[in-house]
Structures are given as C-alpha cells and as structure tokens.
Design a protein that fits this description.
Layout lengths: L14 H35 L8 H30 L1 H19 L5 H29 L2 H29 L6 H8 L1 H13 L5 H9 L9 H10 L3 H37 L1
Helix pairs in contact: 1-2, 1-4, 1-5, 1-6, 1-7, 2-3, 2-4, 3-4, 3-6, 3-7, 9-10
C-alpha cells in the first residue's frame, strides 16, 4: 500500500520560508544582544559619561536611559509598520538593521549622557521597526499550519542574544573603564551580517508570486526565470548557467541595438534640421 502518512510540517516548508525565518531570527538575536548589552553596560557607561559629583544619581540616569530606549521601541514599531506599507517589509527591515548598526556603533562614541540617551532612542526606534516588520514578514511567508512554530523559533533568538551578550561581556568587561564602548562597537558586525543575509532572501514573496503566476504553463507561458529555477532545483547548474548566459547575451544585444537605433535616429534628426 502507498504511504499516505502526512509529511512532517518542517519538510513541507520551502527554502525561501526557512531563509526568511533565519533572517528574522538573526535580527531578533542581535537585537537581543544589543538590548541586554545595554543592561550590562549602562552602569559603567554612566560612570564614564557623568561627572563624579553625579555618581550618586546614577540609578536615576539609568532609569531615564532605559525608559527612553523603550519609548524608541514603541515609536519604531509604528514607524516601521507605516514605512513597510510604502517600501515593503524587506526593505524596511534592511533599513532598520542598518540604522541599528550605525546607531549602536555611534553609541560607543557618546561624549556625555545626553548624547548617549539620544543615540539609545534612535537605536530603540530601529529595534522596534525591525521587530514589527520581521514578525509580519515571517507570518506572511510561513503557512498557517506552521506559523505558530515559526514565530516561536523566531522569538527564541532574543534569548540566545541575551546569552551571547552575557558571554561576551564576561570577557570584554575586563578591558577597563572603556569596555562598554568596545561592546557597542562589537554590536555593529552581526547586524550588518543580517542585513546582507536579508538582501539575498526573497522575503516578501512578490517576485516568486509573479514568476509562478505568469509562468504556470510549462513550454507555453513558462518564463525564463522559472525555467532557470527548475534547473537549479534539479541540480542542473550547468544548464541553469547556460540559459542565464544566453539570456544575458540576448539582453545585451537588444540593449545595444536599442542604443544604436536611438543614436542613429538622433543623428538623422540633426542632419535633417541642417
């Protein structure tokens, strides 16, 4: 008898769906790293940025820093949601992570507590924007029956980020009074890596939808990108490369022909005017 048992949920997911989860999870992981890095470093940061006469008020300053950061989260969630409707979730998430990277690095260059608070607010906006767009992006791509599991896997990244931040601070905390600055400089690298990963992930699915809607009839309305993807799924890399090269040459020839035709038409028009 044929095996009619349903496939496990994780085998029914496409590579693009897993890539989307990985990118969103990494975003949450590095946001978790940055968030807990603030908790670990805010006290030595205040000692480095405040006058010694203000050390007795450090708890109050820490409260302001954390409160302003949380305010940035809320503002970022609203900004990210609105921006995603205009430029798409993928672009919004990439911009959020790039902004988070820059602001985190600049936090290491803060020269007083006011500049530190402003930078933390901007970091909070970027984190809030990334959280909202990353969650909606993953929920949009994953199927209904696996969405809950996907959300759990995505959100566990923040706990992993907490753990990594603790481990890193255990080492970097021994580097002296400016150790907190090194911690924020280190926070730039993983966020940038996530940005590059997202750039290659077809997260929103519009492109794939267009391909499979427009090219759903093999050898009739099948478009070249779908044909190339089919070759790649069959591990026929040579065939996919050959098709891509041919299409590239055709595109180049057409583009050159159009440019030559435009130049000829322009030159003829000038000659007629003379």
């Amino acid at each position: 008898m044929p095996d009619t048992a349903p496939k496990p949920w994780y085998l029914a997911l496409s590579r693009n769906q897993w890539n989307t989860l990985l990118a969103a999870n990494l975003g949450w992981l590095f946001d978790g790293f940055e968030t807990f890095a603030l908790i670990l470093t805010v006290e030595p940061a205040m000692r480095g940025l405040l006058d010694p006469s203000q050390f007795g008020q450090i708890p109050a300053y820490i409260g302001v820093v954390i409160a302003v950061t949380l305010l940035g989260w809320g503002v970022g969630g609203m900004v990210g949601g609105v921006l995603a409707d205009y430029i798409g979730r993928k672009r919004t998430m990439i911009l959020a992570i790039m902004a988070y990277s820059i602001m985190t690095g600049l936090s290491a260059l803060a020269f007083d507590w006011v500049s530190f608070v402003i930078l933390r607010f901007l970091v909070g906006i970027a984190i809030g924007s990334e959280w909202s767009t990353g969650t909606s992006m993953m929920a949009e791509v994953w199927p209904d029956e696996a969405r809950g599991r996907g959300a759990s896997l995505m959100q566990c990244g923040i706990g992993i980020g907490f753990f990594i931040a603790s481990l890193v601070w255990l080492i970097m905390g021994t580097l002296g009074p400016d150790a907190w600055r090194y911690m924020y400089l280190l926070g730039i690298l993983p966020a940038l890596l996530t940005g590059f990963a997202l750039a290659f992930a077809r997260a929103t699915g519009e492109y794939g939808s267009v391909i499979f809607i427009a090219g759903n009839m093999p050898m009739v309305s099948e478009i070249t990108p779908l044909f190339i993807i089919t070759k790649l799924e069959q591990y026929d890399y040579a065939g996919a490369t050959a098709i891509a090269v041919v299409m590239l040459l055709v595109s180049f020839t057409l583009l050159l022909s159009i440019n030559l035709l435009q130049a000829w038409t322009r030159k003829r028009g000038q000659a007629e005017k003379v």
